[in-house]
Amino acid sequence: MRDLVNTVSRELSTDPVDAGRIVADILRCRPHELYLIEGITDGARNAVLSSLTELKNGMPLEYITGMVQFRDHVLRINAGVFIPRPETEYFVELIMKRMHKDPSRILEIGTGTGAISIALASSYPGARILATDISSRAIENARQNIRKCGLEQRVLLVRSDAYSGIRGSFDLIVSNPPYIPRSRIHHLPKSVKDFEPVLALDGGNLGTELTERLILGGLDRISNGGAMAFEIDEDAVDILRGFLTDHEISAFRFEKDLSGSYRYLFIGVPDEES
Ligand SMILES: C[S@@+](CC[C@H](N)C(=O)[O-])C[C@H]1O[C@@H](n2cnc3c(N)ncnc32)[C@H](O)[C@@H]1O
User: Fold this and answer.
1) How many angstroms separate the CA atoms of 139 and 153, rounded?
2) pLDDT value, residue 274
3) pLDDT at 273 (0 to 100)
4) Average pLDDT for 138-163
5) What is the pTM of this model?
């Protein structure tokens, strides 16, 4: 086993600890268990070596293992569905800090694997969530995860483009929409541009196309005292500030992620000081 971990470490130019984690994920065990296995079957060795070829070709590990960790949940991830990121885990944490009252009706647009909705449903046991996506692959993947987490009664799924067909009002509207400016997509790392769905990345010319639609459509759909929360591109702050000002929306704030980049936009939550 040590030889195999060393091969992975060398071929991927990663340190042996990371290589051990990768091998453990592929073999679906914990890293320390690797060294408890005496000998390794041909099947397991071949699985690692063929995954190594895919990894070297740029395929994200999550698509190889079919699993992704998001906060307390191990979710299933299918090809063609966006892999949830650590900054989105922090987004969920910030939402919980900023909401001054537990939301009971939540709408998520563009749910992907269902990660945000599942995390919010776990944190707000009284909430009912409507989770949407325009992609049928995403809806299918989210359905699997919602079922796996036993949340079918509280998280409903609808395939829809933005707000089309969505009625009612919500205490929280949340979205991590596609927000990469179109011209930047071909500069993204191979692991992203060749493997993740362009529908999940392409935010139009400036990267704010869907976000702006969601802000305007959300104004009529948030309840009294409700809020909207968006993950955004760090370079979109000025564009979005101008957009909000042009539309006379004043109750907004931008927030930073853990690396210090402005990554989130909240509309309708009070300032920290107030
Ligand atoms: C960046 S991914 C986020 C996925 C997931 N919420 C997460 O944070 O991991 C954006 C998602 O929005 C979906 N999407 C793109 N355009 C949409 C639209 N017009 N209406 C609804 N969903 C859309 C994509 O299919 C994709 O699943």
Assistant:
1) 16
2) 40
3) 45
4) 98
5) 0.94
Q: What is residue 24's predicted lDDT score, i.e. its pLDDT?
A: 93
Angle subtended at Cα 212 by Cα 70 and Cα 182, rounded to the nearest 5 degrees: 75
Q: Is the pLDDT of residue 271 over 70?
A: no
How far, in Å, CA of 112 to CA of 106, rounded?
16
- The b/e string for 206-217 (b: 16+ C-beta within 10 A; e otherwise) is bbbbbbbbbbeb
Cα separations in angstroms, 218 against 58, 116, 211, 233: 37, 18, 10, 19
Predicted pLDDT of residue 270: 63
For 105-120, letters b (16+ CB in 10 Å) and e give bbbbbbbbbbbbbbbb
38 alpha carbon – ligand 1 mean position (Å): 44
Tell me the CATH number for domain 79-267.
3.40.50.150
Q: Does residue 84 register a pLDDT over 50? A: yes
Distance CA 231, CA 116 (A): 11
The CA distance from 103 to 120, in Å, is 10
Joined tokens for residue 105: 């009706």
Distance 44 CA to ligand 1 centre (A): 35
Domain spans of the chain?
Answer: 2-57, 79-267
Most informative mutation of 73, 78, 82, 159 for ligand 1 (most atoms within 8 A of CB): 82
Q: Is the CB of 109 under 6 A from ligand 1?
A: yes
8-state DSSP, 110: S
Which of 118, 199, 202, 231 is the best mutation target for the ligand 1 pocket, counting ligand atoms within 8 Å of the beta carbon and taking the most? 199
Share of the chain above pLDDT 70, in %: 98
Question: How many Å apart are CA 214 and CA 179, to the nearest integer?
Answer: 12
